[in-house]
């Protein structure tokens, strides 16, 4: 499925009868966030708010990622793995690593239809538009103010020219200034360090809001370093993203509803927060750099895209499930014994990950843990559970059984201290350094246990057949009370 822009997606959902249009007047101060959260919890389809108090001529869209079904609609398939499987199958068999495969992508696919394409913009410069005139929302009562919650921050690597698109929360300070919450290990922050190394303190940045949901998903995804996110969005869309070059040499989606162009002053950091985040707690104030607005662009009758975060499962949880499915083939290429993975909605995406493997040798589960903790966003996982390939990782009861039956805590629990964690984790005393837990819930080989693993019980096939016949008769006769 390919959408030209956010409006194309909205019309698609309207035709399906899956768009909720709200005509009641609502406030950006807590009301939109509360309505959105409750709608997401109830798996209601996207909400289009048509009357925003104090923001005449604006509309707000929220709850686009309302459940796993929303991803099936956006990508046009209920088997999300097929998207990346198709992409990987197009790569040459000659490169032997993922990096080699990425580098060979241009040669294999040429500069074909997945590459970004220069197009005239749908937006126009608006000299009267400033940050305070944008309907950014306040999500929780004790938030520091109004935030852009589903805007995309666009930067460019000064060495490679690769564009990065990421979703960071943006706290509005005044008409021309805002705070960008990029954590130390995020691409934006890492790119900022490259600018500083070159002695450049004014880093070009564009903040866009209201684009094709596939681009939003890409911005929120852990795309491998070295791969331009515009190109990855092209892979997911099946065709390149229409882009326009701004005066600061950044490419932005041509059909964005709002574009804020300027720079981040790397010498100007101020206290950001508190903010009620996806962990369900307020993030304490901390210092982050200031974005300084130079030019603003807007479409006629703009539609602003927001999300409401809090305790799961909200929109970020369903994006996480999409990432889980789409990136599984990439993970299998790096960890060949990997069978399946589950990033549970209530596991906070970076909190708990469950992985099944085909086990061949002693110590394999811990080796897999180390590999997973070295992979992009998975490096933030606080707890990794490894189970055998016959365990359904999406059935929590099967996973609990594996832990209860297969784990000796002294041997199979692995605690690693002073490693990178999610800095939003409220349990970590000195973020971003914390600890990690690995649980090897696989059946143990003789080398790991010192003796043979006991034989698993199984029924006699003939007895099973007879038992099923008798029980089927009972059910048909309705003898069950």
UniProtKB/TrEMBL annotation:
One of its GO terms (cellular component) is cytoplasm. Keywords: Lyase. Residues 123-312 form the 3-octaprenyl-4-hydroxybenzoate carboxy-lyase-like Rift-related domain. Residues 318-441 form the 3-octaprenyl-4-hydroxybenzoate carboxy-lyase-like C-terminal domain. Residues 10-84 form the 3-octaprenyl-4-hydroxybenzoate carboxy-lyase-like N-terminal domain. It is an enzyme of class 4 (lyase). Its EC number is 4.1.1.-. GO terms for molecular function: carboxy-lyase activity. It comes from the Archaea. Belongs to the UbiD family. PANTHER family: 3-OCTAPRENYL-4-HYDROXYBENZOATE CARBOXY-LYASE-RELATED (PTHR30108), FERULIC ACID DECARBOXYLASE 1 (PTHR30108:SF17). This is UbiD family decarboxylase. It comes from Sulfolobus tengchongensis.
């Amino acid at each position: 499925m390919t959408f030209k822009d956010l409006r194309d997606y909205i019309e698609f959902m309207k035709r399906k009868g899956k768009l909720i249009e709200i005509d009641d007047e609502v406030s950006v101060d807590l009301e939109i966030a509360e309505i959105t959260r409750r709608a997401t919890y109830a798996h209601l389809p996207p909400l289009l708010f048509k009357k925003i108090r104090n923001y005449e001529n604006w509309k707000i869209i929220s709850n686009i990622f309302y459940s796993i079904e929303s991803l099936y609609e956006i990508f046009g398939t209920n088997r999300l793995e097929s998207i990346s499987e198709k992409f990987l199958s197009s790569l040459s068999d000659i490169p032997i690593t993922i990096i080699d495969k990425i580098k060979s992508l241009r040669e294999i696919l040429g500069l074909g239809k997945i590459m970004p394409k220069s197009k005239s913009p749908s937006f126009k410069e608006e000299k009267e538009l400033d940050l305070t005139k944008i309907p950014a929302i306040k999500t929780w009562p004790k938030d520091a103010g109004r935030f852009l919650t589903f805007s995309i921050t666009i930067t460019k690597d000064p060495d490679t020219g690769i564009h990065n698109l990421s979703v960071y929360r943006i706290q509005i300070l005044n008409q021309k200034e805002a705070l960008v919450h990029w954590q130390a290990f995020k691409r934006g922050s890492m790119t900022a360090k490259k600018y500083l190394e070159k002695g450049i303190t004014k880093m070009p940045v564009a903040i866009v809001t209201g684009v094709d949901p596939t681009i939003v998903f890409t911005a929120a995804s852990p795309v491998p370093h070295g791969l331009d996110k515009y190109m990855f969005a092209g892979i997911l869309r099946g065709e390149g993203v229409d882009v326009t070059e701004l005066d600061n040499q950044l490419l932005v989606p041509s059909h964005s509803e709002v574009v804020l162009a300027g720079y981040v002053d790397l010498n100007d950091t101020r206290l950001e927060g508190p903010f009620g985040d996806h962990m369900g707690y307020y993030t304490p104030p901390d210092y982050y750099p200031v974005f300084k607005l130079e030019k603003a662009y807007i479409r006629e009758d703009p539609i602003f895209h927001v999300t409401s975060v809090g305790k799961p499962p909200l929109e970020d949880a369903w994006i996480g499930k999409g990432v889980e499915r789409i990136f599984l083939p990439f993970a299998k290429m790096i960890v060949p014994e990997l069978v399946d993975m589950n990033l549970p909605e209530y596991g906070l995406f970076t909190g708990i990950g469950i992985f099944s493997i085909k086990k061949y040798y002693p110590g394999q589960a811990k080796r897999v843990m180390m590999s997973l903790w070295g992979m992009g966003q998975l490096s933030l996982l606080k707890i990794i559970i490894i189970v055998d390939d016959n365990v359904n990782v999406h059935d929590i009861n099967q996973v609990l059984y594996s832990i209860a039956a297969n784990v000796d805590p002294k041997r199979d629990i692995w605690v690693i201290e002073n490693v990178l964690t999610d800095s939003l984790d409220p349990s970590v005393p000195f973020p971003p350094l914390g600890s990690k837990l690995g649980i090897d819930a696989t059946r143990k080989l003789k080398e790991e246990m010192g003796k043979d693993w006991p034989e698993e019980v199984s029924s006699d096939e003939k007895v099973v057949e007879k038992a099923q016949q008798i029980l089927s008769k009972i059910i048909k006769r309705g003898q069950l009370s």
